[in-house]
From TrEMBL:
<protein>
    <recommendedName>
        <fullName>Tetraspanin</fullName>
    </recommendedName>
</protein>
<keyword id="KW-1015">Disulfide bond</keyword>
<keyword id="KW-1133">Transmembrane helix</keyword>
<keyword id="KW-0812">Transmembrane</keyword>
<feature type="disulfide bond">
    <location>
        <begin position="167"/>
        <end position="197"/>
    </location>
</feature>
<dbReference type="GO" id="GO:0005886">
    <property type="term" value="C:plasma membrane"/>
</dbReference>
<feature type="transmembrane region" description="Helical">
    <location>
        <begin position="232"/>
        <end position="261"/>
    </location>
</feature>
<feature type="transmembrane region" description="Helical">
    <location>
        <begin position="30"/>
        <end position="55"/>
    </location>
</feature>
<comment type="similarity">
    <text>Belongs to the tetraspanin (TM4SF) family.</text>
</comment>
<dbReference type="InterPro" id="IPR000301">
    <property type="entry name" value="Tetraspanin_animals"/>
</dbReference>
<dbReference type="InterPro" id="IPR018499">
    <property type="entry name" value="Tetraspanin/Peripherin"/>
</dbReference>
<feature type="transmembrane region" description="Helical">
    <location>
        <begin position="102"/>
        <end position="127"/>
    </location>
</feature>
<keyword id="KW-0472">Membrane</keyword>
<dbReference type="InterPro" id="IPR008952">
    <property type="entry name" value="Tetraspanin_EC2_sf"/>
</dbReference>
<dbReference type="Pfam" id="PF00335">
    <property type="entry name" value="Tetraspanin"/>
</dbReference>
<feature type="transmembrane region" description="Helical">
    <location>
        <begin position="67"/>
        <end position="96"/>
    </location>
</feature>
Length: 271
């Protein structure tokens, strides 16, 4: 009788344990599905920020000496695409409950985590160097390359910069007095480029009175620095934020892989 009781209790204990294991597996499965949905949305956000950075006022990149600003945006776009594809593959791996697929998914998460971390760190490092770079190169680029042969992208960028931010010159409108363009016969009698004018019309730059042109304290360098700083902070925050989300997913995935491994081990031990 005692032996039958022990056998009964053993079976009940095993059934309880199996139910408990099933409950843990189901919970992890649903948590991973929720994570993958958030992960996919995060990937879309990362890609959107990268595209926005490149498309929105992308002309300004030609005014920068370093390519780190554009590189960090391209890295974010790449990471966003990988995140969206990996999120879809992750759902398939979770449904199939195959440890090999989940292990591959886990590896992809770590890879994307590193890529986004690099983008975030690169944006932060460049953010620290941005002010010094603009001080050293922006004035030289604007005054030395504006309206010069083969420098159309810089000319367009300068014109758009001065119109978008309502500024004139790197530090002030007087910077243009030393420019290659205004000291040439091509400029006519202009004292500043026409894009400095509040209402741009042909040859309006001949009069540099404050009623006609933008005379902003700090010039365009202050405006451009603020604009780029805002973009870099967003790039860094999004990159590092989604990278942290991926760490959560990596932990959940490793737990799910472990649970499946234990279930597989117990199945073969019973056989």
């Amino acid at each position: 009788m005692l032996r039958s009781q022990d056998i009964y209790e053993g079976k009940m204990s095993r059934l309880y344990k199996e139910d408990q294991d099933d409950w843990v597996t189901v919970c992890l499965k649903y948590l991973l599905f929720v994570f993958n949905f958030l992960f996919w949305l995060g990937g879309a956000a990362v890609m959107a920020v990268g595209i926005w950075t490149l498309v929105d006022k992308s002309d300004y990149q030609s005014l920068l000496e370093s390519s780190a600003f554009a590189v960090s945006a391209y890295i974010l776009i790449l990471a966003g695409v990988l995140v969206m594809v990996t999120g879809f593959l992750g759902c398939c791996a979770i449904i199939r409950e195959q440890r090999s697929c989940l292990s591959m998914y886990f590896s992809c998460l770590l890879l994307i985590f590193l890529i986004e971390l690099v983008a975030g760190v690169l944006a932060y490092v460049y953010y620290q160097q941005l002010s010094e770079e603009l001080k050293q190169h922006l004035n030289q680029t604007m005054t030395g390359s504006y309206a010069q042969l083969g420098k159309d992208s810089i000319t367009q960028a300068v014109d758009r910069l001065q119109q978008d931010f309502k500024c004139c010159g790197s530090n002030s409108s007087s910077d243009w007095l030393h420019s290659t363009y205004l000291n040439s016969s091509e400029s006519g009698e202009r004292m500043v480029p026409d894009s400095c004018c509040k209402t741009p019309t042909p040859n309006c730059g001949e009069r540099d009175h404050p009623s006609n042109i933008y005379k902003v304290e700090g010039g365009c360098i202050t405006k451009l620095e603020q604009y780029l700083t805002d973009h870099l902070l967003i790039i860094g925050a999004v990159g590092i934020g989604v990278a942290c989300l991926q760490l959560t997913g990596a932990v959940l995935t490793s737990c799910f892989i472990y649970v499946l491994y234990k279930e597989e081990e117990e199945f073969f031990s019973d056989v």
